[in-house]
């Protein structure tokens, strides 16, 4: 567990409990977990429960989902950001692949970019993030949501994901993004089968040789259902277990639907760490 400051465009933030909690707010009608759908009121609820960051998304990336236009993303996101900024300065991450969407969100007060394409889908995105000093989350995936589960075979999933993330981080740096503003994400559930997801959860802290902080976004995902036999709405306890495994492996960020239980887990882990027992 690493406690470090993350520099945003105009301020530095530190996790309350050593690991940053990103609370999920999906400004969509088709995200795989219905309770994550909402707007500013959900964001305020998650902040009250202990979220360090609010992650707003307006384009579902669940398996089988279709992409939406930049105009539609902006239409969904901007009013929510405005409402949040009327009452709160909580850091806001934007889950998008499009520079025009990130620019519109940044102009309304968003702070961070969570790009599931790792800066591949829009060639202008990296330069924009570098210019504005925006931290970027770079995720590994295979294919697009409509077909990403068609091919989940790897010779060595850890080596292949690791190699990809290293290459995308190098690309980000080449475009002027500071290494201190790069976070990597192995993309749990994005073109991976059960064993691949387990491997990446257990070894996440080893990605890129530990050079970059790691985000784990595994909340209520299907691999947890495969292990537990539970449907999406009943995967909280499995999610907690997998988050603990990833944190003990070295994750610095966890992206979750259920902030309060995660905050309690991190409080306990921090207490043990401070006592020298972890």
TrEMBL record:
<dbReference type="GO" id="GO:0046872">
    <property type="term" value="F:metal ion binding"/>
</dbReference>
<dbReference type="GO" id="GO:0046654">
    <property type="term" value="P:tetrahydrofolate biosynthetic process"/>
</dbReference>
<keyword id="KW-0289">Folate biosynthesis</keyword>
<keyword id="KW-0808">Transferase</keyword>
<dbReference type="InterPro" id="IPR006390">
    <property type="entry name" value="DHP_synth_dom"/>
</dbReference>
<dbReference type="GO" id="GO:0046656">
    <property type="term" value="P:folic acid biosynthetic process"/>
</dbReference>
<dbReference type="GO" id="GO:0004156">
    <property type="term" value="F:dihydropteroate synthase activity"/>
</dbReference>
<dbReference type="GO" id="GO:0005829">
    <property type="term" value="C:cytosol"/>
</dbReference>
<feature type="domain" description="Pterin-binding">
    <location>
        <begin position="19"/>
        <end position="267"/>
    </location>
</feature>
<keyword id="KW-0460">Magnesium</keyword>
<comment type="pathway">
    <text>Cofactor biosynthesis; tetrahydrofolate biosynthesis; 7,8-dihydrofolate from 2-amino-4-hydroxy-6-hydroxymethyl-7,8-dihydropteridine diphosphate and 4-aminobenzoate: step 1/2.</text>
</comment>
<keyword id="KW-0479">Metal-binding</keyword>
<dbReference type="InterPro" id="IPR045031">
    <property type="entry name" value="DHP_synth-like"/>
</dbReference>
<dbReference type="Pfam" id="PF00809">
    <property type="entry name" value="Pterin_bind"/>
</dbReference>
<dbReference type="InterPro" id="IPR000489">
    <property type="entry name" value="Pterin-binding_dom"/>
</dbReference>
<protein>
    <recommendedName>
        <fullName>dihydropteroate synthase</fullName>
        <ecNumber>2.5.1.15</ecNumber>
    </recommendedName>
</protein>
<dbReference type="InterPro" id="IPR011005">
    <property type="entry name" value="Dihydropteroate_synth-like_sf"/>
</dbReference>
